[in-house]
Design a protein that fits this description.
By secondary structure, the protein is α+β, with helices and mostly antiparallel strands. Helices cover 33% and strands 25% of the residues. The longest helix has 31 residues. The termini are far apart. Bound molecules: guanosine-5'-diphosphate (GDP) and magnesium ion. Guanosine-5'-diphosphate (GDP) binds next to helix 4.
Length: 360
Amino acid sequence: FEGMTVVELSKRTGKSISDLQDIMVNVGEKVCSEFDSLSIDIAELVAMEVGVNVKRLHSNEGSEILPRPPVVTVMGHVDHGKTSLLDALRQTSLAAKEAGGITQHLGAFVVSMQSGASITFLDTPGHAAFSAMRARGAAVTDIVVLVVAADDGVMPQTLEALAHAKAANVPIVVAINKCDKPGANPERVKVQLASEGLALEEMGGDIQAVEVSATKKTGLDILEEALLLQAEMMELKARVDGPAQAYVVEARLDKGRGPLATAIVKAGTLICGRYVVVGAEWGRIRAIRDTIGKLTEKAKPAMPVEIEGLKGLPMAGDDIVVVESEERARMLSAGRKKKLDKDRLLKIGEERMELASPSE
Ligand code: GDP
Ligand code: MG
């Protein structure tokens, strides 16, 4: 939508030029000629008003595209050790060691390897969080670690997690956990997974399965290597310069600092001081902190950071877009809030209709 003219927007939305110009007046924009090109913010506002969904696509032209770390989500059946595994992985992080093991809770952490490579883990396990984010259009996760307990084997939520990863087209690395237990039978887990259609590496496929123990902290380095190998095959890259395109993975209200959001940058660089629209909220980034709580000026792709300065609390999966002024931020946020309200009313209306005409 960047740089689209009123004429082009009219073609895309099926609305007349004068209708679009009326809407522009309503959202507080000066009326412009039909051949003037619109800023992406205005185009989004107008498209929202006429009920067209827009996705912001940033041009990568002329900017440097560099490899970026993978963003990983852990999923699996309850009690198979997701939380334990994340805790164990967190402790392998150099940053955690440097900070004396104290990292602040961000909903994400980074494991930095001796080789200089790093992996970003989202530390809200479970497919509920994964699906909620995806439902909101946030494709944050690159790789899913499917945790299966070696003593328990494949269970209902293992299959659910598998289905979610498949639906999202996100590759899987299997972590067969609790291999320290006397009743552990990793071979049985592999056979079960294969019968679910997972093409494991040792059976000629390309899905890696690693045997680990979260409590004994064994196999963690092999799991990390497997994740890096998977990431390498995917050739994960991102534009580093230019406006940030980011997502919220967690948000909370702090008594003193106000709304805080953990963000992961997908592309570009998030810079302190910029005006942003986050979901339907807006603000000016007052501070950016990294996973050990250190203030930083900028956040690059796949780097989880906590941002401060929003006026309201956003939701997990909300997108973060950078706009050029406070006025734009307010306007876009107001437009998105209006759209949310409209959608909510529509949904209530539909539910009423269903209630009014019960099917036998
Ligand atoms: P989650 O529900 O998937 O997050 O599972 P948790 O991490 O809470 O672990 C469930 C239980 O399994 C806890 O009592 C853990 O101590 C135990 N557990 C997790 N990983 C291992 C492991 O590698 N070996 C053994 N023996 N127990 C484990
Ligand atoms: Mg847990």
